[in-house]
């Protein structure tokens, strides 16, 4: 299937190693245990201004 077809079906065809997600039948599903860490990192970055710049 081509990229346009995958997009229309909302399927993901890329790398399986996306932190915070798992691939299930071609769709990305949130991996809740890892997603908690991602949310905390974004919270720290957005509220404490501990960015790189």
What does this structure look like?
- The protein has two helices and two strands.
- The chain is α+β, with helices and mostly antiparallel strands.
- The chain has one domain (3-48).
- Strand 1 and strand 2 form a beta hairpin.
- The termini are far apart.
Offer a few descriptive terms:
2 strands, 2 helices
Query: pLDDT under 50 segments (min length 5)?
Result: none
Number of strands: 2
Number of domains: 1
Q: What structural class should be given to the helix and strand makeup? A: alpha+beta
Could you tell me the radius of gyration in angstroms? 15 Å
Order of helices and strands: HEEH
Tell me, what's the shape? elongated
β-sheet strand percentage: 15-25%
Strand order of the largest sheet: 1-2
How many helical elements?
2
């Amino acid at each position: 299937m081509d990229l346009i077809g995958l997009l229309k079906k909302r399927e993901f065809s890329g790398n399986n190693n996306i932190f915070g997600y798992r691939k299930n039948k071609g769709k990305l599903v949130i991996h809740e245990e890892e997603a908690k860490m991602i949310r905390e990192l974004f919270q720290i970055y957005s509220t404490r201004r501990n960015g790189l710049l």
